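Lab notebook page, bench 4
Experiment: in silico fold of construct C2
Operator: M.H.
Input chain length: 66 residues
Purpose: comparison with the prior construct
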Amino acid sequence: MGAPYPTKKALRESIGKEFRFIETSMFGEEYHGEGSYTVVGPDPCNKRTWYATVTVNAENVIVKVT
């Protein structure tokens, strides 16, 4: 799954805000609501410069980035 944030720091600064993501799997949806997701940014197809694990709550709000 991709995360269209320019840097991992920018993703961390988005804690408390709605999580933006890009589905990349050809096997179905990757996002299934509350939980932890491994993401790559800033572009999952062309430019992979950082990776992170994002934890979101039931309202799709970022609660943790590692």
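Observations: The chain has a mean pLDDT of 96. Residues 8-12 form the longest helix (5 residues).
Next step: discuss at group meeting.
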